[in-house]
Automatic annotation (TrEMBL):
Protein name (record): Adenosylcobinamide kinase
Catalysis: reaction(s): adenosylcob(III)inamide + ATP = adenosylcob(III)inamide phosphate + ADP + H(+); adenosylcob(III)inamide phosphate + GTP + H(+) = adenosylcob(III)inamide-GDP + diphosphate; adenosylcob(III)inamide + GTP = adenosylcob(III)inamide phosphate + GDP + H(+)
GO biological process: cobalamin biosynthetic process
Organism field: Halomonas citrativorans
Function: Catalyzes ATP-dependent phosphorylation of adenosylcobinamide and addition of GMP to adenosylcobinamide phosphate.
E.C. code: 2.7.1.156, 2.7.7.62
Main EC class the enzyme belongs to: transferase
PANTHER family reported for this sequence: BIFUNCTIONAL ADENOSYLCOBALAMIN BIOSYNTHESIS PROTEIN COBU, PTHR34848
InterPro entries in the cross-refs: CobU/CobP (IPR003203), P-loop_NTPase (IPR027417)
């Protein structure tokens, strides 16, 4: 799995399109489980998952608390990675970095920022490659210490 992360309009999509021209793109839908994305995988064809911030935002009102939801997406990530490996599919996740700048006053926006940060950490922990994109420039990051 690879993670491309950066701010809004940083050039993440363009970079991923260039690196994975034959990929299937899948926008995460509100309430969708990550494991369900295995259903759109094609053997030996990269799968790009995007729309993470909107997916997180739309799912924040679920009955599961933050810890429960995080546990669920970690289990789903592990299953998705197993499916990708079995189908020899490169899995790529595009995520937004919203952890810089002023901390929002609204509780909802602070929670979204926290969930996005945890999600990004959980993906980075499992990723083979992590790329930080800023101003169209890409910097490799080390996902493992």
């Amino acid at each position: 799995m690879q993670l491309f992360i950066g701010g809004a309009c940083a050039g993440k999509r363009s970079l991923v399109k260039t690196r994975f021209p034959s990929a299937v793109w899948w926008r995460l839908a509100p309430g969708q489980r990550l494991r369900e994305c295995a259903g759109v995988m094609l053997p030996s064809t990269p799968l790009i998952l995007h729309g993470v911030l909107e997916w997180l935002s739309a799912s924040m009102d679920s009955d599961a608390g933050s810890d429960g939801w995080r546990s669920q997406w970690c289990d789903d990530l592990n299953e998705l990675l197993q499916s990708a490996k079995a189908q020899q599919t490169a899995l790529v996740i595009i995520a937004s970095d919203i952890g810089r700048g002023i901390v929002p006053i609204e509780r909802h926006q602070r929670r979204l920022r926290d969930l996005n940060g945890w999600f990004s950490q959980d993906v980075a922990e499992r990723a083979e490659h992590v790329w930080y994109v800023r101003h169209g420039l890409v910097m490799p990051m080390s996902p493992h210490h």
